[in-house]
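Can't paste images in this forum, so I'm doing it all in text. The chain is below; anyone willing to post the predicted C-alpha cells underneath?
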Amino acid sequence: MKTIKEIISSKEIRGIADYFSLYRDVEGEIKRLQLQNSKIIKIALLSSFTVKGVKETLFIKCCEIGVVPEIYVGDYNQYSQEILDSKGRLYEFKPDLIIIFIDTITLLGNNYLLPYQISNEQRKAWVDEKLKEIVSLIKKINDNSSAKILLHNFEIPLHSPLGILENKQEFGFIESIEKINTGLRDAFKRDPQVHILDYDSFCSGIGRQNIMDYKMYFLGDIKIDLQYMPELCDKYLAYIKPLVQATRKCIVLDLDNILWGGIIGEDGIKGIKLGPDPEGKPFLEFQKYLLSLFNRGVALAINSSNNPEDALKVFREHPYMILKEEHFAAMQVNWNDKISNMKAIAEEINIGMDSLVFFDDDKLNREIVSNALPEVLVVDMPEDAALYLKKLMELNEFDTYQLTEEDRKRGRMYAEQRKRNKFQNAASDITGYLKNLKMVATIKKANSFSIPRISQLTQKTNQFNMTTRRYAEEDINKFSRSDNFLVLSVKIEDKFGDNGITGAVIVEKGNEGWRIDTFLLSCRVIGRKVEEVLLANVIEQAGNEGAKVLAGEFVHTKKNAPALDFYKNNGFKLASKDSGTEVWEYDLAKKYKSPDFIKVVKR
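Text version of the structure:
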C-alpha cells in the first residue's frame, strides 16, 4: 500500500489543474492517509470571496511535506457570522490554524471605486471602525479557540480617481488602506496566537496588475487568479510547518561552485570566483545571506569532495570569505561519498535527517542523496549562480512562531559543540571529559524571559522527553502562576560557551506526593549528566515541602528511546505499566546524589 508521499511524488505537477486532478485521485484515500500519518493538522479557511482551489492545492502541498490536513472552508463571505457563532461549525471543527482572508474590494465596498464620496474625517472614522471590527473578531476567536490565527493584510489598490494627486491628500484613499495594515500589525505584534500574512507584499511579488483575473472576478467573485494559488499556499506552509514540527535546523553545503565559483583543487585560491566583481558577487551575497540565517540560529555544515587543506585555506586566507570555520557545526571535507558524509553530519550534530537541507551544484549528487536519504530536503539548484541567492531566500524551512535567545545562538552553539567533540575525542575517559568541561547549571523558576523557551522545548524536544506533552506559552504561564505547580528551566555553560536554556521540568504538587508532568532535555546536552542535576533539584524541593513520594511518567514514543531508563537508573521503582505508559516512583526519604563536577546555581 502506497504512502502519502509516494502517491504525491508519482504524479507530475505543472499547474493548478494538476492540483485539482491529484486531489480527486486521493480524495477517497484521505481517511486512510490520516490514520497512517502521525502528522495531522486541522486548518480552517474563512474568506470574503470565492476561494476555489485553496483546499485542493493546500491539501497536496501539505501532503508533499508528509502532513495530512483536514481543511474546513467557511461559507461564502460568512466569516463574521462563523466567528461570532461560538457554538457553530467553525469551533466544532476545533482547528489548529485559522486563515482569514478578507479582500480589499469587500472591505471597502462602494468606497473601492468611489473613494472620495466621503470626506477625510469620514475616512479616518471608517478606518478606526474597520480596525475595531477586525480586532474584535480576532478577540472572539481567541476567546473560543486555541488555534493559531493567520490574518491576511490588505492589498494596496493601484488605482485612484485623483491620479497623480492621490499622494497630496490630507488623508487619501491609498493612505487609508496603508493605515489599516499598520494598525493590524501594531494590534497583534505581541499576540503569540495571531500572525499577519503580508498579502500586500505577496501581490507585489506576483505583480499587482496580474494578481486578479477580472473575467473570473465578474463571473464568480474570484479575486486571485487560480494560477497563483500554489504560490499563496506556499506562504501558508511557512505557518503550517512549525505547527507540526516540520521545520528544519541545518543547511549542508557543498563548496566548489556553491560557496565560491570554480574548483579550489584546480583553480587555486587566487583562481576561484568570490568577491565584489560580477563573477564573484553571486557567491559573496549567497554567503552573506547564509550568515544572516546562521545569526538567527540555523546551523551550517559542509559536505564536500575536496582536499581538506585546500578547502580550509580558503576559509582562513581568502579576503572575501564571509563564512569562517567557526560558523560550521560539522565539516565533512573528504573523498567519501556524499551519503556517508550526510549521515556523519547528522550524527555529529545529533539531529535527524529530516532536519537537513542540502545545497549542491552537481545534479547527480543531488539525485544520489535524494534517493538514498529521502528525509533530507535536497534543493533543486539553478544552473546560473546568479539565482542562488533568490533560491535561498525563497526557502521557508526555518520559520518558527517564536525566536528565543537560544534560537539566535543555536548556530553558534552547534559550532561550539564541534570543539567539544574534538575535546572529547582527545580525553582518556568520559568522566575526565565531563569534569574538564567545567559546566555550570543555572536552575531557575519560570519567568517571562524563560517561558517562551520552555514552551518551545516542549514543542520540539523528542529524544530526551519523558512524556512529549506539547504546551503553548499560555499553558506554561498558567503552570508557573499556580501554587500547585513547579516549573523550572536549566541553562548550561561550559568552557566552550553558553548552551542556553536546554532543559525544563514541570511538576504538579500534591499533598502526599509530587508528579513530574514534563521532564526534558535538549539533544545538545544529552549525556552530560545535566538531567541528574535537574532531577536532584526537584527531589530536594519536593522533600523540603513535605512530599513523601515523587512520581514520574514515561510515555513511549518512536523517538524518546534515549530517556527510556532514566527513572530506573536514578533510583525510581516501577509502580505501574499500561499501554506504553510507565509510572515510576521515588521514595523521598532516600538521599539522591548528583554529579559534583557540575556547579549548580539556583535562582
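The chain has three domains: 4-243, 250-394, 428-602. The radius of gyration is 27 Å.
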